[in-house]
Amino acid sequence: MVAGDFNASWDGVHGPIRGLGRWAVGSSLLSPIASLSSPDDPIHSFYRGNTPTSLIDHILLSQACLGHIVRAGVYTGSFFSSISDHRPVVLALSLWTHTPALTTEGLLPRPPTRAPDLDGQNPALVAAYQAQLLTHLPTLEAGDPHHAGAALLTLSTLSASITRDLLRPPRRASLSHGRSRFDGWSPVAISLKANLTALVNIDGHLRGHRSYRRWTTQDLMDADIAGITTNWVETVRSFTWDDPSVPHQLMDITGYGPSFWRTTPLRAIQHPRFCQDLIRQVRKCLHGRHRCTLRSFLSLKSAEIEQSRLKGKIGAALRS
Q: What is the pTM of this model?
């Protein structure tokens, strides 16, 4: 199935792109919605103002699909005119459970893509990809089209994420790899690293990555999330802060602090990119100029402590 705004009508009359129908037929694809449109009763998905213009949005279905079409058409109405000049196209299918007897794979060369792609000739890589993806397949059937679409989107995004991880070159060893902290880090940097560690652990549980137990139910998440957030909070609160609001600001730097993770339902955080985007956000705080700023801050604090010691203010030096 291929769907979207193709900027082309099936007959090549409308839209800046030509040859959609010819390309689709050559790829063993059909357009159920376009087949229902006729000169006497045309179907339109693109409007100029409130005037219907053309059908340039399509849901293309493989001819090898085993099942039957329940409904095909376009939603129209004044509600959609306030959102976009396009109208939503709809295709409802009733699929059989048989294994397809036909396939459209290989009929046309694959279009070039900048996204990472697996080498289909590497059996070890393909096996690793399949093994990881199989662990994330839904355990229950979707009860309605909304949940089915959400599950499909999650699996599609997860597929790309797994592919990227498999193709990523091995990480070089670093001083901080495998350690929660090391000498020379300021309390701010250590607090950010505790935030990062918590997010990495949560992401590992959501994806079932490596040795992490995958959270397939809310009970499994509830059993693990308390320990993850407790370690995070205790690390940040182990320091003495001049401003009591600083530790809270550090823990909520992404907008999702420990309280969010303790109370959020599992279904709200299952999108594969959710945790990974937060991880990148925290890492940016520890890279480049930010890290230099933290080191400069640490050097200034060390200089203040030394000045206090030289002036005989031992108490001030110890409190620092």
A: 0.38
Give dist(CA 153, CA 22) in Å, integer. 29
Are 86 and 5 a contacting pair, CB within 8 Å?
A: yes
Per-chain mean pLDDT for the chain = 77
- Convert 8-20 to b/e letters by CB count within 10 Å (16 or more is b): bbbeeebbeeeeb
For residues 12 and 4, the answer to whether their CB atoms sit within 8 Å is no
- What does the alpha-carbon distance between residue 192 and residue 100 come to, in Å, rounded to a whole number? 50
Element at 22 (helix H, strand E): helix 20-26
Torsion of CA 77, 83, 89, 93, to 10 degrees: -100
Which residue, 11, 40, 31, 22, is CA-closest to 73? 31
Separation between Cα atoms, residue 193 and residue 185, nearest integer Å? 10
pLDDT tens digits along 176-193: 334 444 445 678 888 888
Q: Tell me, what's the pLDDT at 1?
A: 84
